[in-house]
Specification:
binds flavin mononucleotide, globular
Amino acid sequence: MLDLSTSIAGVKLRNPTILSSGILGTIPELIKRAFENNAGAATIKSIGPKPRDGNNNPSVVDFGHGLLNAVGLPSPGYKNMDMEFNELSKIKDVVIWSIYGSKIEDFVNITKYIIKYKPKMIELNISCPNKENGMLFSQDKNCAAYVTKAVKNAANNVIIIPKLSPNVTNIAEIAYACEKAGADAVNAINTVQGMVINIDAKKPVLHYKRGGMSGPAIRPIAVRCVYDIYEKVSIPIIGTGGIMNGRDAIEMIQAGASAVGIGSAVYYHGIGVFGSIVNEVKEWMQENGYNSIKEFIGIAHE
Ligand SMILES: Cc1cc2nc3c(=O)[nH]c(=O)nc-3n(C[C@H](O)[C@H](O)[C@H](O)COP(=O)(O)O)c2cc1C
């Protein structure tokens, strides 16, 4: 019997696909649609400390090999989301609650507020442009460790997953610092910094000018990051970046991911992509004589 399940820090997922943060928002009905379409887990859009509008349009552009976005973390702010939180907390499937802040206290305050809704897992978005001392929390191992430890202390045993940025020299070192600070798992990667210029208008296409790249163009970057992290830490890794189909998911698992984040593929292929990825993984396992996902996590290191 083929076992497609996997686990992240002791929490069982029926299959290794996870809806990535920022793709279907925080509205419970949309998150439920991911599960109805076979996602193993689903991450909500990062919740912020205060009401915040997004950036002006254009904020997302398809550049042919992926997407460049600077949506700018629009959020009603955690104090205005009780109705959504209440509904999210009733979902029996594995919902990952993503939070962001510009100060460590933001992460701690949001965590203290949301734990009454009993989230199974909290992902720390320390890898988008929220600056303290002029850099992302995930661009400095001490900052990454400090925020991880502070949230872990505030979280009453909730599973904590820092989400890491590829825009660093040594991502494995940062993952290791998070592990030492008490992270239960890590997610790699968030978007890759980029820019697209309209040569006729002679201006960057995005209103915000700079953006984060996602989709097929970043897959080799993400695979390399996961491969490096796997060699350095023993906590589970959620491998995210450019996964479009079952073969991409298998590649990420072979690099060391226990589960895979699916973001831009939902834009390109629709919500049915979870089901098709799971079916393609299943077929590959049958053809290659594997009975469980666990048998080939990190196998590319052997
Ligand atoms: C439009 C858009 C919005 C995003 N918003 C968030 C967010 O709120 N929080 C977060 O941690 N990541 C966010 N991300 C990053 C994704 O979760 C994911 O890490 C990234 O897109 C790489 O995966 P992909 O290539 O499968 O899309 C966003 C990505 C996109 C394209």
